[in-house]
Amino acid sequence: MESKFLQLKSDTILAPMAGVTDIAFRLLAKEYGAGLTVTEMISANALARGNNSTIKMIDVVDEEKPRVIQLFGQNISNLTKAAQYCEDKCEIIDLNFGCPASKIIRQGSGSALLERPQQIGRIVKTLSSTVNVPITCKIRLGIRKSKINAIEIAKVCEQNGAQMIAIHARTQKQGYTGKADWDWIKEVKQNVSIPVAGNGDVRTVKDYIRMKEETGCDYVMIGRGAMGNPYLFKQINDYVNTGKYEERTPQQKIKDFFKYLGYAKKHNINLTHIKFHAQAFTKGIPGSSKFRNKLMRSKKLEEVSMLMKEFEKQVKE
Ligand SMILES: Cc1cc2nc3c(=O)[nH]c(=O)nc-3n(C[C@H](O)[C@H](O)[C@H](O)COP(=O)(O)O)c2cc1C
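Above: inputs. Below: predicted complex with flavin mononucleotide.
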């Protein structure tokens, strides 16, 4: 099947991360060359009910194009309503079949659906034939190591109209621990014709190269490796285009935070997210633990900005 998946400028994707990939962080990742960025997961049930705070979570803007909104849910009618609400706000709708959080599994959504391939098929088929933008799916290996069914799930997604599959190479039971098993990314890639994004444990340019070589995946999706380090996308693209790339100094990392802060102010990002990113951008810089203690106590945006400026001076000295 010829995929209708979009042509991207880079084969790197910023993974959806709840509480992390707000619009400001996504814009910064785009600025540094991420081929695609994805919203955090959004509840289809809440969106279908017209829940105001859920509607506000759809924080996409034109500069982010191509925009991807990720939905989670299990009820086909609500997923359809939610997707119809989203379709003119984005270029792709991604379905979450991988979340291992207990409150999501309890409602039969996220990775709980890996146990119900037929329901996944029905969801993907209905949405693919109802909305005008491509549907993509994000999956895991399966529920547990003895019950890996990623190939079956990937085929079901493809047969029912999915245009791309992202596979996080861990099981539901693994959560975010243990090693991602890239062999399964290779298996999935060999068993479907639509593009495959490999995901799990890519933190450096070397990891990116290794994942592409070892699995043959079309795209590399990066989550935690990009936290506080969206410059990784530029390093990867530079390496691909020129064979070399530059390391980021502590001072430059702080500058990157200020760039994030600029976008965050423009898009009214809440203080909790900003503080999270302030921590992430300074992680590992000598002296940063003292700074982080002060940061945690700050209650105002101006205070965060001032503390970061103080810390910047200290790093320069
Ligand atoms: C804090 C956090 C929030 C996440 N939220 C989502 C989410 O909303 N939707 C989703 O599909 N995956 C979510 N994930 C999973 C990531 O997209 C990714 O699959 C996982 O972190 C593995 O990739 P990595 O090793 O590059 O981090 C989240 C992960 C983290 C750490």
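Residues 250-316 form one domain.
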